[in-house]
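Whether sequence alone determines local backbone shape is best considered at the level of individual chains. The sequence in question and its structure tokens are set out directly beneath this paragraph.

***
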Amino acid sequence: MENSTMDSVIPECSCAENLLNKNQSLPIETIFKLPAETPLWPSGVGNFASGTIDLGGLQVSQISTFNKIWAAQEGGPDNVGATVFEPIGIPLGFFMLGSYIQPNNRPLFGWVLVAKDVSFSIINRTLKQPLDYKLVWSSALEKIKQDSTAYVWLPTAPNGYKAVGHVVTTTPNKPSLNKIRCVREDLTDQCETYSWMWGPGKDSKLSSFNIFDARPSNRGTLAPGVRVGTFVAQIGLSSTSIVSISCLKNMNVNSTMPNLQQIQALLTAYSPIMYLHPDDEYLTSSVNWYFSNGVLLYEKGEESQPVPIAPNGTNLPQGGTNDGAYWMDLPADPANKERVKRGDLLSSKSYIHVKPMLGGTFTDIAIWVFYPFNGNARAKLGNLTIPLGLIGEHVGDWEHVTLRVSNFNGLLWQMYFSQHNKGAWYEASQLEFQSGNKPIVYSSFHGHATYPHAGLNPQGTDVIGLRNDTAKSDKVVDFGSFELVSAEYLGSQVIEPPWLNYFRQWGPTIDYNIDDELRKVEKILPESVRILLETIIKALPSEVLGQEGPTGPKTKDNWIGDEN
């Protein structure tokens, strides 16, 4: 990725370990760059990494070089301000669709789409100038540290067209009508607010004006909504005060997806490296190692006659729903059971699901890993660590991370980390890397939630909650040893293994009373602490608590939907 052209010399930052501590401002002129150069991707019949995508008479390109327009040095995430940019280096014939904003708590690493009318229509053009501009907000009366006064403008779109972004200026004069373009309505989709970018206050609830990232409301493998990279300006606190802008739409979501050779190249470049906690005795294994070491399939009503599971799960029931009719369990022999619970690191591999996202402008590479057993949870109570009995224990544990790669250029932009009943997206600039552009993943002790950095990762408060300890160790899983198990858009080129279409539980339902387990712990705790701990733990789904065996990757909402 080339460096942006700025008003001053731009220092580079290529490692998340160089990022700032909380409440420490980073000069937004610092631009993040991946540690290693991205390779030349293999060619193919499709348009992956070709630089542009045709949305149907509307050609778009992803721009990540910017000119700084305005900055505040306070407010927003971590109260360190935000900076507004305009795209520069726009290709001939393309037009700006809106300004870009980024909080100052991380290096500059973003993009915004620009567009070109390739419809060859004089009457029904895909792009038109706005008719006028409406002033949405000005920082003139805000008592904040800022470079100058900002004016946020919403384009007034012609009939049959939609604005997909705002323009920000530093003078009260309206921008030129030629500054931006509106998009024909049939090429747009509904937007929603996502992450908080900036507001004058320390929290979005404390600000009368807020700026949020904008993304399509409907997201998934078949959803046409395209993220533009622009923002939504919101006046007041009511949802009805959100300024109406739209996202784009692509009805041919598969046209720019990578082929098999390109998938291989992407994983060679970006496959993560995962560190298990040094004290965790419950390690990963391959699915076939698990099956070949005595794991049994049980059927309701025939519990006394379990059957061994064949390699690759060829004798597992296919399809259906998780109706309780079947479940897996560890070997019956006690010694073998304990051995299998501990996994087999040498056999470990990752299981890859490749899918289109955000209208086919991005490729999501979901990387799944299997653990035969999940250990019990631990609570943090001040400086004390308290094991929580059977809470958290279960047989069969599926975890995953997801790489989000641009279909314009093959660049890694984001990574999702699954964390119990939730998870989080992180920008590439927030990750740690090793061996080039391979992100580091940390697996939490016993719970196996995934995190981008080592540490405690408390679930609850810093004083009371569940511990999710992560640390580097010599227990390492290289996700570069993988099996591509699904890429639906490639049809018969990828054969799904039978175990992937087993939709029942990968472990038995454990019969224990969560209240009894909590009472064993709570005898030593004051009432206020007991109530808070109970609230945190009981908010977790039964699959995480260990009361029922988890189901496989294909049963999860994110298989065809977005991560969150």
